[in-house]
Amino acid sequence: MKLISESYIKQAIPKREKNSYKGNFGKLLFVGGNEQMGGAIIMSASAAVYSGAGLVTVASSPINVHALHSRIPEAMFVDMYDLDTLVNMVDKMDGIVIGPGLGRDDRAKDVMKSVLNELREDQFILIDGDAISIYINESLAHPKAQLVFTPHLGEWKTLSNMEPDKENVEDNIQKQKDLDAIIVLKKGQSEIYFEDEVWQNIPGNPSMATGGMGDTLAGMIAGFMGQFENYEKGILSAVFLHSKIANTLAETNYVTLPTAIINDIPRTMNDYANSN
Ligand SMILES: NC(=O)C1=CN([C@@H]2O[C@H](COP(=O)(O)OP(=O)(O)OC[C@H]3O[C@@H](n4cnc5c(N)ncnc54)[C@H](OP(=O)(O)O)[C@@H]3O)[C@@H](O)[C@H]2O)[C@@H](O)CC1
Ligand SMILES: Nc1ncnc2c1ncn2[C@@H]1O[C@H](COP(=O)(O)OP(=O)(O)O)[C@@H](O)[C@H]1O
Ligand SMILES: [Mg+2]
Fold it and tell me: What domain of life does the native source organism fall in (predicted)?
């Protein structure tokens, strides 16, 4: 298992070209946030905006539009239950995050099926939270796009049938192959399973055990995937910096809020990008 190092992150964060524009840094769609869990998709999309994503659109329950715009006016909005508009949006994107606060009801299942059907090979989709359950319980077909799952150990049980105290690297490698997806297995020291290698993240601490922390990571991962030289560099850098920021905050804070991590992403990226 390889360890994600500071030096790896420093070379992975891309330097922005002088004449670049927002279209160079990823067009992303965030799908989730029902009437009870709008905060999840707002945190996820905020993390992507603060990670430097060029254009972010949120597809959510209409009840969340004002809350979203008061937090991140940078993001655009569509009603996720308007399936025609939703699939049109999917078509224009480089990548999609689906699941934070999505819920698991019939409407959520229809949203999930519509999005997955529409995907192309040149796109990526990150499946998190409730969308993990829907993917397995509805036996949905593998989408054409690059697939990324970001399960915590409870969600990994849904995906792999392995109990949290039974999962192990060898069996996880086999499950990664069966699922034909990149797996970000979230835990105290998260592990990232690619087709040919496994990486481990070292930073992280219990001040991070608070609702919304994984939603925030999903947004960072997608934000980086849309900008970095390749998906692997983006995913590994996001996992590392998410918990590295939390370690710094935990030096002076008992609990690390997801929104505090989000606020620190641009400055931390700058520190790492300029420290070569
Ligand atoms: N502000 C908002 O809008 C927020 C919205 N959110 C949204 O809520 C949705 C549900 O996601 P979720 O992760 O909260 O719960 P859930 O699907 O019940 O977990 C499944 C099972 O896994 C287990 N389990 C969990 N962690 C584990 C671990 N580390 N190791 C081992 N087991 C673990 C857990 O066990 P339990 O804790 O019940 O014993 C349960 O049995 C999702 O869409 C998310 O985005 C949240 O992000 C919060 C903020
Ligand atoms: N004790 C801990 N040590 C290190 N990281 C933690 C700890 N507790 C939680 N985390 C991190 O916080 C995130 C929690 O994700 P998740 O359970 O999906 O949160 P949510 O769904 O509430 O947004 C993961 O990235 C996990 O690695
Ligand atoms: Mg989660």
Answer: Bacteria
